[in-house]
Amino acid sequence: MANLRDIRRRIKSVKNTAQITRAMQLVAAAKMKKAQDQALAGRDYADLLNQVLVNLKENVDEEAHALLEKRDGGKELVLVISTDKGLCGALNTNLLKKVRSQTSSDAEYVTVGRKLREQLAKSGGELVADFEVADPAPFVEARPIATLLTKLFLEGKYGKISVAFTNFVTTLNQEPTVVQLLPIDADTVGEKQDYEGVGNEVKETDHAAALGKDYLFEPSSEDVLDTLLPLYINFQVYQMIIESRASEHSARMVAMKAATDNAKKMTKELTLQYNKARQAAITAELLEITTAMKAME
């Protein structure tokens, strides 16, 4: 009977675990929807901002702006956007592998998220700064990050600044990505970025249409560019944080669903094992009674 008690305890424990993972799955699904809605809300703004930049770069000397200046040599600074919590599958592990393979060996790091901050610190990575961003992510909390990256680049401390984040493709597919943030590539400014496409289809920016529009820049194209490029960087950082959050909640939802399904499967197996053991115990008792009755005859 002790064996039956142990099985009952295991069944109860697995059922309790399934209830917890099911609740976490529902919470992650709700948070994922909010993060996805945030990304969708910024699409039109991103599209118009890119079109203005397309027109601007045709009216100014690209090499004259510091944020467009390509540099030879210099260290690489990487903004790594990971998660604060675990239970989201291999999301952070895959991102760390991407960082190791696509960034320079002597790169320094600015981190958002506790998980990879700890991993990078343990492996001897040089951490320049660490930021905490609320969930859902407000734009105002992304601004200090972009401001710091821009400041460090303009001071000449780094020749290249990249961002490592997880791109939300679908609920079942999150892609670790490393992109160059600074210097801004004048040849790709205005092009549709993959990480701006969340959920529904996003039409690509029509460069011909953008160049065909008759913009009037005041006080001058150069002054507008000075104001617009920092705003562009702020928005890029914000969009990447949102993508990472949508990926995090999606991965956690999938992981918790798998855990819930496995718990249900284990419960069925333990219940079958319990029934077999109980039946065996009943059969043994009946045999003992029958044997005792025959011994008394």
- Arithmetic mean of pLDDT: 83
| Rg over C-alpha atoms, rounded to the nearest angstrom | 28 Å
The CATH superfamily of the largest domain appears as ATP synthase, F1 complex, gamma subunit
Major β-sheet strand ordering: 3-2-1-4-5
Number of helices: 7
Number of strands: 5
Shape label: elongated
Q: How much beta, percentage-wise?
A: 5-15%
Task: Could you tell me the CATH topology label of the largest domain.
Answer: Pyruvate Kinase, Chain: A, domain 1
String of helices and strands: HHEHEHEHEEHH
Low-confidence stretches: 197-208
GO molecular function, one term: ATP binding
Subunit structure: F-type ATPases have 2 components, CF(1) - the catalytic core - and CF(0) - the membrane proton channel. CF(1) has five subunits: alpha(3), beta(3), gamma(1), delta(1), epsilon(1). CF(0) has three main subunits: a, b and c.
Function: Produces ATP from ADP in the presence of a proton gradient across the membrane. The gamma chain is believed to be important in regulating ATPase activity and the flow of protons through the CF(0) complex.
Protein name: ATP synthase gamma chain
Descriptive account of the structure:
- About 4% of the residues have low confidence.
- 59% of the residues lie in helices and 13% in strands.
- It is elongated.
- Strands 3-2-1-4-5 form a five-stranded mixed sheet, with helices on both faces.
- The chain has two domains: 56 residues, Helix Hairpins (Orthogonal Bundle), CATH 1.10.287; 227 residues, 3-Layer(aba) Sandwich (Pyruvate Kinase, Chain: A, domain 1).
- The two termini are 30 Å apart.
- With 297 residues, it is of the alpha/beta class.
